Amino acid sequence: MGGFWFxxxxxxxxxxxxxxxxxxxxxxxSDGELIPSELVRRAETIGYRALGIADHVDFTNVEFVIxxxxxxxxxxxxxxxxxxxxxxxxxxxxxxxxxxxTLARRxxxxxxxxxxxxxxxxxxxxxxxxxLEIGADILAHPxxxxxxxxxxxxxxxxxxxxxxxxxxxITNGHVARLALEAGAKLxxxxxxxxxxxxxxxxxxxxxxxxxxxxLDQATAVVEKHAIIDI
Length: 230
What we know:
By secondary structure, the chain is α/β, with parallel strands linked by helices. It has a single domain, classed as Alpha-Beta Barrel (TIM Barrel). The protein has eight helices and seven strands; from the N terminus they run βαβαβαβαβαβαβαα. It has a seven-stranded parallel beta sheet with strand order 1-2-3-4-5-6-7. The radius of gyration is 16 Å and the shape is globular.
């Protein structure tokens, strides 16, 4: 099953207005533009109630990123928002992904995202499958996912991502169709690198609808989050 399911730690996320959950964002600790506290503040102002920071990691920086980004969780004491300090395993050879994921979890990562086989980057073949086999929490922008991989996502409880990020999002429709056919879980994330990349709940629903979901299906994906129970 997916390595981290957060019902227990997020039962106290409040429903005021129309909350947004986004578990795939980046800070200056990889290739994002904002320090964590500013990312949190900007997300708070547009209705985020849970934010996952998943900076890019490999074996060279995983300890540094988790140690530093996790400190932003201090802000939870004064905010009505949960902050998850995770990682995105990025361009790691599939044969080494399980070792890195295990290390990240041991170091305290709240969330394991795998940088999937987007068609706009030269991601190694087999990355999607390995991310699913090791039970990552989210397979990000998985590109031309196969039916067998969608079945594996369902069986292992891994969420497939519909992304707001330009370029990566060109296969959202394909991912959504296979996920629905397989009964796999979907999430909508931004993969935000800059303040203008953050979106509100309404935009998240539009992204899911644009991927081919009905209004009811899209609303359910956003409001009845596959990882976080608001």
